[in-house]
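Work Package 3 (structural annotation) set out to generate three-dimensional models for the target panel prioritized at the project kickoff. During this period the team completed the workflow that converts sequence records into discrete structure tokens, so that structures can be stored uniformly alongside our sequence database. As a representative example, we reproduce one entry of 240 residues exactly as it appears in the project archive.
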Amino acid sequence: MKDAESNKLIVIVEDDPDVARIIEQVLSDFSFRTVWCRSASDLLRRLRTLAPDLCIIDLGLPDMDGLEAMQRVRAQSACGIIILTGRAHISDRVMGLELGADDYILKPFEPRELVARVRSILRRRENTQSNPARKIAEFSGWHFNLGNNTLQAANGEEHQLSTSEAELLKVFVSNPNRILQREQLMGTRNLSPTDRSIDVRISRLRRKLEPNAESPAFIKTVYGAGYLFLATVNWPEENP
């Protein structure tokens, strides 16, 4: 595992040097490369030359709210994003997921859990980008590029999807016209009935895909069963 992870770059955006040191140490123990940014402005400046695989962003930054910093990162990068914060309010968690975060961890945190979540997001990114036989999915005028997480409308408008959005859409386009349970979409067998993460991600994806998110044409809710992606999907590179 270490060889596979040794080239992964994790950017830590944290103004508390003690917390940053703990994160740097635990990640380096698992062969990740790390860069520490003390502020949002430091992060945005470094993003001009860095291409991180994942950013860990504290919400309580000294110069900018972490949610705004996360939005700016998401606008220019498809990297994974984990929010790390002491804010326990569910509204902050939902807002973070709505704005494009892939995960949310509360302080104080268990270092092994942090590593496990980092690895999980990186694996999803790898799975989304690593299938050369199926890179472009076409449906109803949309073009979804699994290689770079971009979604292009028929009019040429392009959306940069987050890692979690791209992974969710990948499951849908690979299984069109089939009812998928929430556990299948999240890639876990132990999803709590009260976990609303999948619903937030579905809502976020609908806002990009659907002309009317209140009356979705593609992602249908099948009450008591799961979700259905109603579309004919073509993979043009499979039919040259």
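The longest strand covers residues 80-85.
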